[in-house]
Fold these 2 entries.
Entry 1:
Amino acid sequence: MATNGVANGNGQANLDTLKRDEQRVPVHSFDPDASPTDKAAAAGKARDQLKSVSAASEAPERGKTCLQLDQSTSSVVPTITINGAEADKPPPIKVGDSPPPESVEPQPPSPPGALPEAAAPSIPDWYRVGWRQVSGIDEPPLSEGAEKDRAVLDLFISDQYYGTWYHNAALIIFAVFVTHFLTRFHFGWGWIFIVLAGCNTYYTTSMQRVRRNARDDIQRELVKTRLASEHESADWMNNFLDRFWLIYEPVLSATIISSVDQVLSSSTPAFLDSLRLTTFTLGTKAPRIDKVRTFPKTPDDIVMMDWGISFTPNDTMDLTPRQAAHKVNPKVVLSVRLGKGFATAAMPILVEDITFSGLMRIRMKLMSNFPHVQIVDLCFLEKPVIDYVLKPIGGETFGFDIANIPGLSSFIRDMTHGTLGPMMYDPNVFTLNLEQLLSGTPLDSAIGVLQVTVHSARGIKGTKIGGGTPDPYVALAINNRAELARTKYKSNTYNPTWMETKFILINSLTESLILNVWDYNDHRKNALLGSSTFELSRLQDDATQEGIESAILKDGKDRGELRYDVSFFPVLKPEDGEDVVDTTVGIVRLTIHQAKDLDASKSMSGDLNPLAKVFLGDTKTPLHITKNFKHTNNPVWESAHEFICANKTSSVITVKVIDDRDIFKDPVIGYMSIKLEDLLASKKENVDWFPLSNCQTGKIRLSAEWKPLNMSGSLHGAEQYTPPIGVVRLLLDRATDVKNVEVALGGKSDPYTRVLVNNVTMGRTEVVNNNLNPVWDQIIYIPVHSLKETMLLECMDYQHLTKDRSLGSVELRVSELASENDDPKFPFQSTGVKEATDPLRLDKDGTFKGQLHYRAEFVPAMKLKGMKFDGHTNEMQQAANQESDGEDGGVVIDNDRSSMSSSDEEVQAVPPGVTISGVHRHTRNAKSTDTTATTATKASAVSREEKKPEEGIEMSHDELLTHQSGIIIFNVVSGQLSKKARVEVLLDDGYWPCFSTNRARSTKAQWDYVGEGFLKELDFGQVWLRLNEADEGDKDDVIAEWRGDAKDFLKATMTGPQTFTLTGTDDHDRTSLVTIESRYVPVPVKLEPRESINNQGVLRLDLLYGRDFVAADRGGKSDPYAVFTLNGQKVIKSQTKKKTLNPEWNEEFIISVPSRVGADFTVEVFDWNQLEQAKSLGEGRIDLAEVEPFEALERDIQLSSAKHGKKGQVHLRMMFQPEIIAKSRQKTSTFSSAGRAMTQIGGLPVSAGKGVIHGITGLFGGKDDDETRHTHHAPPMPSAPAGQASHPIGQPDSEGSKAFPSVKSMSSLEGTSQEPGTLRVTVLDAKDLSSSDSKPYVTIRVGDREVKTKHVAKTATPEWNESFTFAAGPFTAKLFLWIHGHKTLGKDHLLGDGEIDIWRHIQSDIVSGADVLCELRDGQGLMKLRLEFDPTANPLRRSSMSSREITHRTASIASPSRFSIRGKRPGTENDDD
């Protein structure tokens, strides 16, 4: 101790000579033994408190080790609650408790002008704030109609009417009229003088403004020229700095001390005891800005200036004598303590008289958000002048300036310029991204994980020194920086095979992955054999790059071939203000901030050299080691490290604080262990201090940030899935008085209702166009998983081009419909039917508008065992477990790598168990819609020993399939896709998907995505698998599809994963494979008759004969024909029988019936007249509910009329065949581009998905073979052009039914007659045209004949109902149509055009017809036509036929419209109008 005291005294004596008497600004002197915190506090006396600034950013510590993967297989268990981590805090006040009386103090009244304490109210949306909103620069461009009107206005009104001339002319006219008025009514001269005085004032003011504006403009232009050519002084800024510097310099010095001392403490070499700053000041003279030059000719968001700056504190020319007398020069004294232990001595190193000057260019890029400066680029235009006095020995009195040594000063100066030159000497710039710096996001934060699978290398060229075969291994690095991971080495081979997977955290996709192939040597340095480079930017197009074969290059020469795979897993980020989706796999950013009050009793000197080590689970190797700080019990590390966590629910983190004792064993001062979930939860509760165990005192502060990854098995995975407890049966009846969001456009809302659970759309109704009181009357089944779930019934307004708008919502809680039950088979029961009429709550202001009428009922599901899928490990764990473990190599070990000795492991061992355990709390401010996700229910984090046995009953697969209704649980495992897309699963009519996976990152997708859907009737149910390339919520782009029977699908997939082939229509050769497995949960639902599959299907109708018809002709006979109408639409028209009251028809028809129970089906018999309108002979109603499926039924339908009463009968034979009528995935009357052609097969409507038929064998033919249960194929069909759809005549569009496209190819038409028949085209109507301010008409061309309808009034939904006839044969392939807007004077403009494949919708060999929908191109809208074809009537042979023959053959087709005049098509090249 005496020696140490003498040494300290000598060193302190030398330091004392450096001190001055107290001056105007004191020199900051410190005790060399003081801690950095004490010295920072001493330097900051002018401030109330000084917070420690974190140390400089640390270099990545991954070094040459592989990134460790936390697979969460540890056996460590937490033991201490987080509540005890900060026991010294006062207990929180519980909800409902009154605060202590002493805490309530009267609030003094705020004085006028005081700043408000509460948050300012939000600015209403309709306020116009700032120049951007007032000018409308951010508003969307005008619509076509508005832009057209504006152009017309500009055409007739020139710019001169907006200028000063307009105002002057208006003033003259005003003066003339006013003086005339005053004179006419005999006012005096005084009034005229008043008017003249007003005019004079206006002119005077106007001239003054013109002169002032002109002067300002001229002066501004002159200033711009001077700014770019001359430098200006900044004396005002220097004057401000002179005064501000005396106040700010102590604060700045203290900040530098607190940060630099931490760096010096952690960077002290081993042969020194410590490095401390004992004196630091920047002097009393402030830096100066000598000159400024501004460049005005830059973009609006760029500011560029040249600043001449200098810091010359020794220059006293500009100081007053008083300032010069009290001047303090910059001075820095670094105390270097030599020796070890008690034998130490301090040696001061002095730096003073620092001067600096230079010319710097500053370029700032501005932005609208805070801090309003996005990027700052700095560079020196010339080398700065740097000077200083450095006295390493002797201090101020006896010190010797090393600048006096010849050559040393210039050497140091050249080294400084050589270091700064590449960084910030022109043209190089030093860039500061202020937006990123102030955003709180660390600069080294990872954006995702790179998975690199190294397969093999072939033909490696290279030998060992002295001969021999190489032992190759692969090391991974980014841009050839520090090595991040390495494989094992393979002994004595030129063709090694590794099959190892490594994970790397990356910060940017603009860099390169370097794969270095090394030759491993035991006792000497490893030799580089070559390198291969992979550009990470390739992952932006396809996140998975497989089968890469790249050359191994060295010095530009080929050294072999390397084979590997690269995949990128991005960090999930929130979108559109929504919370980020949580997953079990992610990146953890663990930050060890500091420790305090460490237990000094474990050190003999009472002084610690602490460092922290981080361990995952029960591993022995530390994941991360902080820097050690010498001689402090309150270290501030601020050390961050990122690692990958494979399972957040079971990951455990252990932190040990260790005393670094150099050559002695390093003991553990204290440790703590905590679950990762609890650590993340504690951050939300603002708890980051945790007590250390196995010590008397000590706390450590650490925090963690979770960044979820998009990996298979991590999102909606099998381990997270909870089976449903039942379904909610929702009858969405109608809505009344909904909000009209299109009132400004003169229209009405297009409402539909969707059902959301956890912000996921689980079902929706169809759209009702232009109706504020829509009636849907649709039943939707929603699977639920907990009584705590909440369903949101949201009424929406469909928008064709923009995002749908909300019309209000209603909340429905499952707890209102269900309760728990003691029955083990059905653990939950229904509480009854809820029939409600609830007001629709608007989102923005919380008011109510409109009412929703619905009925809800809960139906319980069976509690079954084995409903969960086998626990697949997620993609990261699978890759980590697939590493080759061959015996032909080993682990690469660096001889110079320091490793923890076994003795240290024994000393640093800690007892098993976790010291910090968290208490789960309810989420604050939870939204009512934040319920348990359907497929992402969070699994409870219980240990393996505490898992409860699975409850429920056991049923075999055959027993399960005896239940008709239930929930199908799908697990979409993987897929090999033709394009990157998402898989949609649909059931039955295929109107809305049950669920959709996330979009595949590559064509070889790994999902492990669990979803579910409700099946009403198993025997008749259908399963649809669709590959949709569009994002969810966007316009559909279905590229492939598969459809099959639900029962066969379950039989195949309940035993294990099966692969299904999805065939596209755009390219028949490019198929996609999707692997799926499933489970089935029976739900005993009693269906209404209208819900049953038996209620919809195909009706075969035989019109046999009629009896006792009314005689309409003078001869006592009639010419009867029958018209059948379904739900208000004419669907069938029979042949006309001449001169009879008892016709014999014997005609057969096929009708698609969407609802047998609710069908309004009638037959009406007419008397045909050649000259006048047909007369009705009577009408009868047909009750289709009497027709049982698959049973023929004959009925006599009694006809009746108001004029003749009950007279006549029609004899029918009917047979109904149940069939699912697929509904189009349309959101409104305009369907998407992924439309499908719909037609008939022999008059029988069947349905398929976009060119894919899975036959109608389930109804009319045999089953699939057993082989198809493993790989299910569907025969491809010729593709239908996008934008065509059809259905049998008379079926309402709102049903959206489709028929399977059984399209005849040209080869199949060769056997038909080549004789042309009569094609009747009826132009019905159009919807959603691009312009409502035009008079639309239609031009149609079939073959070489072209016709045109008449134009109608201005509307976007015109109706024509005009018919035309054409001669058409099998080789008349297409019908072309154009819609134009009629103009009386100008040229007609095109509103849209389209084409229809005629024989895709009707048949060429029989009498057939169809209503066809065609989506318009070169515009927007939907065109509806009716095609009717009669192959027996040839219009080209009419001239050679008798009039009776012509009448007989064309009786079913009306004569052409009188408006069917052939003419030129407006808007074409040949149009000269």
Note: The two ends are 113 Å apart (CA to CA).
Entry 2:
Amino acid sequence: MTSLVLMVVSSMHLAAGVFPDPSSPVIPDQVVVPEVAACGRDYTPIASSPWKGDVTVSMDNTTFTTPQYGSQFLYLRLNSPTFAPLVRGHSYTIVVDFWCSADLAFAPTIMSFKEDQSKYYNRDYVSSYNMTQSRPELFNEGREWSMTGTNLGGNWTRWSTSHTPTVNMENPTGTIWVRFYLAEKVRKEVVSFSVRDMCVTKDGFTTDPPPKLLKYSEGVFEVSKPSQPDISILTQQSSCPWEEVGLQSWEGLFGQPTNTPPPLITIPDNSKVLITESSLSTTPYDKIVVPPSSELIFSDANISFSVRALVVEGSLRIGSPTCRVQGPVNILFWGDKSDPITTLNGFGTKGISVTGTGTIDLFGRRYFPTWSRLARTARYGDDRVYLQDKVNWIVGQEVVIVTTIFDDTDIGSPNQNEVRTIIAVSSDGTIIQFDAGLKYSHYAGQEYQGEVGLLSRNINLFSDPDPDGFGGHLIVAGRRGRIAGVATRFMGQTNVMARYPFHFHLMGGGSGSMFSDNVARDTYFRCFVIHGTHDVLETENIAFNATGNCYYVEDGVEENNTVSYNMAAHIKVIGEPAIGGSQSGDTFYSDSSPGGLGSGDRVQPVDSTAAGFYFSNAHNHIIGNVASGGWSGFGFPGLPKPIGDFKDDDSIEPSSRPFGTFYGNTAHSSGAYWPAAGCIYVGGELTQSGTKLKYSSGRKDRRTRMEKEPNPNTETDMWMTFNNTMLYTCNKGLLHWGKRVEVDQIEFHDISRAVTLFGEAWLNNALVNGFSGNVDAGYADQHHDAFRFYDVSVKSLITNTEFRNFPTVGPCRSFVLPGGSNYIQKEELCGVDYTAGASLGYTKNYIFSGPFHSDEFKPQQISATRGIKYTNVLFDNIVQFKIVHSGASHFFNFVDHDGTATQTGVPTLVGSNLDWWRICDDCRFVSEWSVWTCPKKPPPPFAEREIAFIEIQTPDINPSDGGIGPRDSCDEQAASDWRNCEIGYAALWGHGPAFGDERRYVNITQNAGITGVTGTGWYFWLSKGAAKKLVITPSQVPNGAVLRFATSYPTGTTFSVIGKYVYSPDKKFNVFSEASTIDEVWTDPLNKYFFDGSNLYLQLVMPDKYYNNGSRFERGGAHIWDVSSYWDIHIESDCVADSKGFCTAAVSENIPPWNEGCPQKTTAVPSTLVPTAVPTSLPTATPTAGPTPTPTAPPTSIPTDLPAGKSLAPDTAAPIVMTALPTSIPTAAPTSIPTDLPAGKTLLPDTEAPTVMTVPPTSIPTDLPAGKSLAPDTEVPKMITVPPSIPTELPAGKSLVPDTEVPTVETTSLPDGESLSPETSSPGRGVGSRVAADGDDSDNDIPFWIWIVVAAAVVVIGGLAAAAIIVVRKRKHINFSDWRDFDSSHDFTDPMRDNNITFD
């Protein structure tokens, strides 16, 4: 047995503010726990053979004998319970005295595992599948512990071992096994053996105070705690009710207790009756009534009795605010659901009813705090916990140690909340010891800490357990109710409205009522209910193992109540939970209406989504609470109007009300029922028609508005604001379906998706931690997303947010999905074990992602970031982009207002993989994310870029006759179907065959909407020809942005162009006139258009009257422009049209030039400019022949010193593809190069990559950091700058020539004003460059027209150095060896993504 040093606490042991019971034993600050031993002779001997299995062992007293033939292993199992878990960090010693008639081949070993060893004792391994695959860490940790022997004489040997596990080892049977190996020569003999004793001991350990826990020092959450009560309230009593004068004794009125109390006892009018310890009968009472003018008072004594109904019309007083009772008071409520008397004055039976002008005061002993957080992890097997707070809890009380894993549903496996009894408390009140060790681990790390709640009180209201869920109840419907220090158990009546453990009922406001420091445990229906009541206090209560919504604000009219510092744990839904597989969720009714679910299961359909805290009206003060478990932790359904007793009240719209306060709250272990459910859920809709309630659990938008003061007839937009919040081990963290929300100062840990916000939404000052140190968290999904941008009609701002620990957890295989001639998709194949069919790897964990499936919903510019920080986040995992054929994929975008999200260091626009987003060549393709990034603010004179959105209506876009199919018919289509969805394209001006390069375009479909970058022109082309009528809505074109528009028409077409203010009361409009020059359109865009005989030109803007600088959502230095439909441009041509509305005259594609320049603007290189020779060691694809002039002069110098073992040549050979070169180079090279570079930086990347080499403005550095060279080490896309000069000296054995053959390249000249560019404009040709976070982008420093020279092969013979400058670009290779069903006949040519694919 475990012994503890127990001591009586005197005043000297009390820390300030700690109030232990003087009679309670405590744990000293340090105590050495002696060894715990399990010894005995209760063994089960087993012999086994790999070819015969189990064999019988006979026993004669203490000697065991195996049969002849086949015994290879001997096992001893100690049947006496030892230690259920073997806890990491503790040392275990096993000793056995063993005698055997035969020799042993090896020393014996110890085995202890999760599974019952009887399954595995005839194997040479423990479990080939269960252990090695499901829990490999246990298999590797505890497969065998070797023992050492000491000869005791007479063939007796003492075998022993000590082991300290590094992981917790579950061992539910509490058994320890010893395995003995018999020597080969004796396997066919009869073997006798004997055991004297087998003992298992656990090391002594010192219960030192835990190391100081830095309270969320690395996070943003600030713990919100109640103020410590006045000591005098706990230790002194004043103005006690039982000390008042004029009290009459119960015995004096009703006689001494008898075994047959009358069925009805009514207190006399105008009397105060005192109940003492000896007043009441042990026989149950039926009904006791306290009339309006009377009081029933309890003394401070040990009082217990049973009653079916206690009706209080006057006053019931057990203690007072200044005189809390210390003695136990226990009231048992009795009665069956089938009793004929089921109602009493409309307030039910089996409980306490306070009615009319009645009041109730119940004040039990004050324990503080009522719950605390762990100060360090409680590991399974531990019999004590360390708390962050000093408590005055006492021996004999029960506590609950709350789960810290994700799943709290009891579906498949039991929940991990544990109830234990206190057997000792430390003198400072921070350590409590239990009667039994823990079965599970409960995490307390730097990120978050589990809770421990006190379940015991000295006033107890309870019922016996009832299989029908028909328990007692407490309803306060009178003038005032003050209830504190009361515990209830088996209370509430399932699906009986108004019958709850604690209930304020239709009390209105100003009553001064409160529920404080109470317990609702094992409830049958709810916990603490506020119904039709305002301004009450509900604080420091605990609810555990509750049925239905627990802390419950009922009808939607309840406001200005304070719900603070409460705890809810293990909340269970009633009936079938809401598990709808889409955003729509499920629909439930309160009766058996068709189309609903679970009609008879619940009287209130919202109990299908039971939450720890449920608010039908958010305009209350919600402070410092913690919710664990439930369908969600905090639930906020939308009520368009009140329900229940207030269903006819049209003066309030509950769902529009903002928070009074939401601050300091925590939620965890929620959301296991539904993929979209989470710890905080703002969604669903509850309505009432007649007496029938209808609840839709899925997406229902809620507006948030509030009446302006002093005019109640006007409203203003309000935001639902969550402040200082902690969420962990959730499915989803916070899901808000509404119009306006702000989330400030919040932490997320161990959550499959941290947050999903709709409407105008701001996430600020957040910490999103993908994975904590809680190895037992049991994530909802190993794939973790931090934030998912939506695809339409929202505004999502993320500012001042840190993302931590988003690694790629396991292996993924690359594969390519063929998608037709224009598209190719590169994906990650994860989680597949081809041999076993089980999950083996894990997908990546992304920071930013989005839905990509929809074509109907095309994202405008609706997402923006600022002030983003990453800690332990792989660069690859910052953005998840999925290449599919849909509008949501093609138009994926967000704005990084300061370059911190994209790590560019400058304001950056992000767009999808399509060249449509590559408006200029200062844009970069980030291959790790498969997206384009462009500087938002190019250098002068170029205008700041924005992301714009326009809608165009034509006969083919969303046609009224249904067209080619429903609006969602093009969602995430395969290539063969996608061709049917395309009706044309939009392209950037200045790119296309007419300009010597490829179109930079995006296909458009029947679903309206085009999103792209301003600062250029958009060309609109319809496959069926010019549309006789067009309507253009520039829905999101920010002020000052340049967005020019062109579309082709037959020569000679004339136009009527009218601009209409859609919502103008007087239907105002502008009639556009034809401009004589195109420049007139640029200067007067609201009144002019231009037609050059081929293209119609407009400049798209929004009139200031309806779209100005204030028309944007702005928070934290980031903003998103409004999307509005106030202004339409109606275009009607005079062309002859067919029945579908298209001009019959043919038109030709005519993408206009872009004459206003671009930063680093390039044109296509003529295809004749190619290298002159290709060595045979390169891939067989040969460049086209071309001119071969040589440089006019070689560079003049070479660096004299390079790091040992480094050269200017790559370390390894790689396939090289030479791009075209100029025909000549300048005769004089620049004269200098910067001699100082940032620490760890060079002019070449650290890793190998597809490279483009350009001439720098200066010279090469003479000193490089140790271990660095001008050659890359491994492959990474980079921009590389090459000097014009060559070093004259190299280390021995090194040259400027690569180790393998490389083609030499001659240079070619270009006419003045032209420059080089890649052959195509596809994303596949883009270089994925990561710009430094400090904003240094060397490309911006290079002159617009510059000679681009590329380094060439150099041969150093006899001290003579020669060099040529080359441009190299590596082919991309995709290995299909792992893609078993790959069909090499697919055409992977993609003009939009020229990946230069080769097949190994």
Note: The first strand starts at residue 7 and ends at 8.
